[in-house]
Design a protein that fits this description.
The chain is of the alpha/beta class. Helices cover about 40% and strands about 20% of the residues. The chain has two domains: about 280 residues, Alpha-Beta Barrel (TIM Barrel); about 120 residues, Double Stranded RNA Binding Domain (2-Layer Sandwich), CATH 3.30.160.270. The chain contains 16 helices and 16 strands.
Length: about 525
Amino acid sequence: MNKDKLVIFDTTLRDGEQSPGASMTKDEKVRIAKMLEKMNVDVIEAGFAIASQGDFEAVKAVSAAVKDSTICSLARAVRPDIERAAEAIKGANSGRIHTFIATSPIHMKYKLQMSSDLVLEQAVNAVKMARNFTDDVEFSLEDASRSEFEFMCRIIEATINEGAGTINLPDTVGYGEPGEYGEMFSRLIAAVPNSDRAIFSTHCHNDLGLAVSNSLAAVLHGARQIECTINGLGERAGNASLEEVAMAVRTRQDLFPVKTGIDARHIVPTSRLVASVTGFPVQPNKAIVGANAFAHESGIHQDGILKHRETYEIMKAEDVGWNTNKLVLGKHSGRAAVKARFEDLGITFDGAVALNDVFVRFKALADKKHEIFDEDLQALMSDTQLETIEDIYKFQSMEVLTRTNEAPRARICIDIRREHLESQSEGDGPVDAIFKAIENLTESGADLQLYSVNAITQGTDSQGDVTVRLEREGKIVNGVGADTDILAASAKAYLHALNLLESHANKAHPQRDGV
């Protein structure tokens, strides 16, 4: 039986970045985009070009770096957004403009304050305008799952007539339920006269935990594109998870009339990269990419696995990228081996100087750890690239003293705009003492929202990966730090968050009115 192609549209770099504190630098976006390209993702939504100069530059950089995937920029249905998106994707081998406007009664009345006729007119004009820049235009009906059926038919027919090749029906607020959401697709495809001239797409949020289920239900009812993110990253409760969607379709080929082009071997490495860059760790019981996804503790399960793997596993762990690294790195490894492993992870270097800098850091880590794993390399690279943001605060050294029944004390030395300063403080615990000592020097006025520690790899010599979330005047950032010393990693993460706050001080958050 011939299978239809299911287009995988990844929006980790756009909708994923709208998770509070998950902002990514241009270089980080390029790294992730290259891994998505290696995974054979069809469309990469690289950002919202009008949101900020940084977003524009990131979309432009991804467009130049990626050759095999279509690069997309989001744009509201207005001229400045569309022109900015067109400029950002101009260098792409294949570029798409994704324009949208809200179509639900509640959005049109309270947010847009526009009549349905005006919304229809603006949508048509936006698609017509976007078609002047590219043949690949996607139109989204924001909040489609709460929109009126007859109005959706009108606006879909009109935008297809103007050249929209993809029609996206987002479940913007996670309101949909698989039965009704899936049926909405088959009804619209049947009712819209020119529906055969466009691919219908799903973009689901996970507010009720139904994003993947809704997306797959839509596929069964005619959708041929799924918009999703690595690790399910995204606003509020997140988006449909790429790895879950792709593996569900692959595993249940008896059920789904479609196939994806995803190279699943790169799923786990890409998941780890996104987690490292954003500071959003993957929960152990997360499907496909969680540490426990292929772990079996029950004696009955273990017995079954030993006798026949398929008794308790419906996928092979190695098929999605687990345990595929056969090259062990350590303190005796040379530049060539380290460079080759970084390239396997989608990381390249601009010249010998950049490689030498990372190699020096690698050797320093190898002196502390017996074996270096992929996660260590990704953390090492992220730590190196922290210097790409404005380096106002820089960690130098610290001393922490803890004794039973005594308040811990910390003395920390940091550079502030290259001036060497130090401070000490007591705290409820060693980490609290460190953060208070830093605040004595920086007086940032930031509120600590989250402190999280995860072991990057197994073993007592594992690096600790620390995430610190700070909030100030509505700006939320995630600082990350990695070190075999958890306290040093904590200090680095806090200072990284402060640097992000300073660098984001004049940057607008990505537009939250997206699909």
